[in-house]
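Exercise 7. Predict the joint structure of the components listed below.
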Amino acid sequence: MSAATGVAGRPAAERGPGIGARVAHGIRGYGPALVVAAAGLVAWEAAIRLLGLNAFILPAPSAIIGALVANWNGDRFPLAQSAQNTIIEAVGGFLIGTTAGVVVAFAASRWGAMRALLLPLAVAANAIPIIAFAPLFNTWFGLLNPLSKMMMAAVLSFFPVMANVTRGLSGVDPSQLELMRSYAAPESTILRKVRIPNALPYFFTALKLASTLSLIGAIVAEYFGGQGSVLGRMIVQSASALKFDITWAAVSLAAIAGIAFYMAIALVERVAIPWHASARGEG
Amino acid sequence: MAGPADTQPVVRIRGVDKVFAGRDKGRTTALQAIDLDIAPGEFVSLIGPSGCGKSTLLRVIGDLVQPTRGEVAVNGKTAERARKDRDYGMVFQAPVLFDWRSVEDNVKLPLEILGKDKAWRARRAKEMLDLVELGEFNRHMPYQLSGGMQQRVAIARALSFEPQILLMDEPFGALDEMTRERMNDEVLRIWQQTGTTVVFVTHSIPEAVYLSTRVVVMSARPGRITRIVNIDLPQPRSEASRETARYFELVTEVREALHAGGGAVDDSGMPTASVARTMAEGAVG
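Solution:
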């Protein structure tokens, strides 16, 4: 029997592409979407000009960009500073929530009793509209303290991370566990060599969810008051001042921050777990 | 039901019962009064309808399932001691490769757990991959290999730490007939080169007869050994062995033993049909 028995006998050169090639491939994959987005912006601009739509209802992209540039370092609407502060809150909350989620997931997968206790509670807690707690968070952590916004982002990030990582750590193929048992491998080895690698794809899925949720948490929490130079306040104040081009500029910054955050994680995923179908762009 | 009496058995099973406590159906007797001796270097197949406990018996030998009653001795030790001494190499129906490890690193996994040094691991992985003729695929990831190649990696991994007993649970059940026959030859070749004792679970009669020195026929509900057929086909075996009159006699003998034990080869129907087809083709060709 020759080595060519298998169908998938690809030559070595075709094997795993390097990190650079994978990143380039990933960016190329977004090409068509970027073209469509650009075409959408052009159509939007054209529609506003042709229909003479009131900027009150929907400003043209050019007007939004104009407002963004004019207020980049503005006195009343300092957009750049606001975006920076909001991103700090979101990323801070993301880190707190993710860390807590991972810690609880490890505990839950290690001790069955803890899992039985925590998971129903987590499911119930996850069904609560946590955003409703924003005014209380202001009381608990300080209205002007960024921590009150960070904690909202943290709580929203916590649940998907905890649930997914728990599933990844405990949802190991039973045959893999039988195999490890046949090697008489200690539980610590099984954790290191099987459970943690198995949980990585789940972890990255959760991180992508958490990146979006943390930004939502931070901005919505900002709506309920706090320090002035944040995107949430920019949005609320510009809208009540009827400066909708500035509102749209602030919303655009939030959108760009959210997409960038998500893509950064997707990029790390691609490099960290190239063996997984989601990172190969097949799943 | 004992094996050759003149050698100290590698596996010695006496009066083993296994009762599973089911949730709604009550208790299921998976194994009843199992006695079996397996001599060093033997190739023993366990065959029987689904639910006859052949996989359970394999797992009892490998200390992955605890018997309800009876004794299992492996090299004069308990099965648990043998497992902790890494006497067993396991191969399952699925290759059970780890997606995040290259082919080579999958083969090295048991060696890492056994604490072998790096140079040894590298040398051993290369030897084993050469043995299963996948030497040049060492840097590939499992998803880049076909099912048959993945199963060969699993065999290389199971042999990497030189276990005394290779336990194989329907290792080729998921492969197509052509690949399965090639894998059979591969396993025979490896068995001859290494001298490892093999316990092999299958539901294919031709496979069991072709590979084994003895075929243990089991029946279901409760799972018990109904017959042990000595396979006296000359060694080494090859394609030609499949066409001898003795081969067909033995296939018939095993088939009749299975039917005498009650029921078709497999309640699911699939293996019964495939066995019937194989028999018909054999008779014509």
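Discussion. Chain A touches chain B at residues 1-3, 5-10, 12, 15-16, 173, 175-176, 178-185, 189, 193-194, 197, 200, 273, 275-277 (CB under 8 Å).
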